[in-house]
Structure to design on (69 residues):
């Protein structure tokens, strides 16, 4: 699979917390914790399981930085 997105991080799934419609997929990307909220249907279709190696593809239109004074 080829993608135009440049923010692709290899990661290992550490937890999958599913609800009725949405699941939070927790990943470790080289010591950085990532959490993706995806549909439960997508978890099933991709056959995701804890321990699987995946690619986290990040597409964000904004990144906001704030600092307390």
């Amino acid at each position: 699979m080829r993608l135009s997105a440049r923010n692709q991080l290899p990661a290992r799934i550490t937890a999958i917390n599913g609800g009725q419609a949405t699941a939070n997929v927790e990943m470790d990307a080289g010591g950085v914790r990532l959490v993706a909220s995806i549909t439960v249907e997508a978890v099933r279709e991709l056959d995701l399981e804890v321990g699987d190696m995946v690619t986290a593809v990040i597409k964000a239109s904004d990144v906001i930085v704030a600092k307390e004074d």
The chain has one helix and four strands. The first strand starts at residue 8 and ends at 18. The helical segments are 40-46.
